[in-house]
Amino acid sequence: MLKKLLSILLATIFVSNLTACACSPHQIEKVMSLDEKIGQKIVLDFRSWNDGDTQKPVTEINDEIRQIISKYHIGGVILFAQNFVNKEQAKRLISDLQKAAIESGNPPLIIAVDQEGGRVERFSFDRKKLKNNADIKTSEEAFEKGKFIANELKTLGINCDFAPVVDVNSNPLNPVINVRSFGNNADIVSEFGQKFLEGLHSQNIMGVAKHFPGHGDTSVDSHFSLPSVNKTLEELESLELKPFKALINSGVDMVMTAHIELPQVDQNTAISKKDGTKICIPATLSKVILKDILRDKLNFNGVIISDAMNMKAISENFGECESAKMAINAGIDILLMPVILRSKDDIANLEKLINRIKDSVNNGEISEKNIDLSVERILKLKEKYCKLEA
């Protein structure tokens, strides 16, 4: 069976390091199947895998993972500490993940990692941990930190860092951001965030501003429950949104959302699957926050990626399939970790998710035009950062 024209073209472009041509949504619609487009919108993690006897860290690719990437046209993989043993092993794993995509005729993967430096580092190998962002004192230091991390990532074949954190840590009791932030001053966070991003870009590593519209004034960790920030849009503009606006002006390619309620900004509600209570629609699922504010007000034209969809703030309140549909309709381009894959048996959950998204497109609940626009943004990003040596 002939490969789809776009997949062949992109694979050839990326492997040969040639100049890629832009693809419009109309062209994408013509040359990519709906399955291929949905796959490009998904980033998965493979932290561990059950081989039938035990659950083991994924430090090398296996046949099941290779088939998942190939068959479901997966757009990216995020790596965690369990995936790193040493430099040579990591390079081999990342190379094999890319081969699984390229050799099956798919575009190359976004290979991402949360390498913020300090409290959140997925690997350090033969060096000490870096400073927390809270301990950075100058913009030059922020730049050098970003450049150092970018060099490490580039050496391994990683092309995306889920950093910098540009949340303004205005709540001293914040359990999840805290020292990951550059501080409680929006101007300093903006300046240092811009410089960190410049450091990443200096080595051709894509950066991600997180967590929009700001996770700094929370006292709850969204990994475990749904935080609420009771601020008006005007209050957000005076503090939380400043660093995001600064990084957008500096050319950040991707913004990651926060799983937080903002009841004074988006009054739309849903019934929680967890306990039947009425809750506000969190930012990740909010068209008001993503389209009206991030796209229209802040003029962001890049890729919007969700924070991990399996975090309890989302998964317990909305479930896998419903949250994915809501996120896509809100304006999310990439779904990060929408399902948990730890064994061959879990593949059925991924297939169920993809089929539910397809059904929602076919019955008009999700606009395929919006999916095409997302895929256009994603492919442009890959065109810029995911070029591989032949």
SSE diagram, text form:
Elements: H1 5-16, H2 25-31, H3 34-40, E1 42-45, E2 48-50, E3 55-57, H4 63-71, E4 76-79, H5 87-102, E5 110-113, H6 139-156, E6 160-161, H7 186-201, E7 206-212, H8 233-238, H9 241-249, E8 254-257, E9 269-271, E10 278-280, H10 287-297, E11 303-305, H11 312-318, H12 320-330, E12 335-336, H13 347-362, H14 368-385
Parallel strand pairs: 1-4, 1-12, 4-5, 5-6, 6-7, 7-8, 8-11
Antiparallel strand pairs: 2-3, 9-10
Helix pairs in contact: 2-14, 3-14, 4-5, 6-7, 7-9, 12-13
Please tell me about this protein's structure.
The protein has an eight-stranded parallel sheet with strand order 11-8-7-6-5-4-1-12, sandwiched between helices. 49% of the residues are buried. It is built from 14 helices and twelve strands. The longest helix has 18 residues, at 139-156. It has a single domain, classed as TIM Barrel (Alpha-Beta Barrel), CATH 3.20.20. The chain is 42% helix and 11% strand. Helix 2 (25-31) packs across helix 14, helix 6 (139-156) runs parallel beside helix 7 (186-201) and helix 12 crosses helix 13 (347-362). With 390 residues, the protein is of the alpha/beta class. Strand 5, helix 6 (139-156) and strand 6 form a beta-alpha-beta unit.
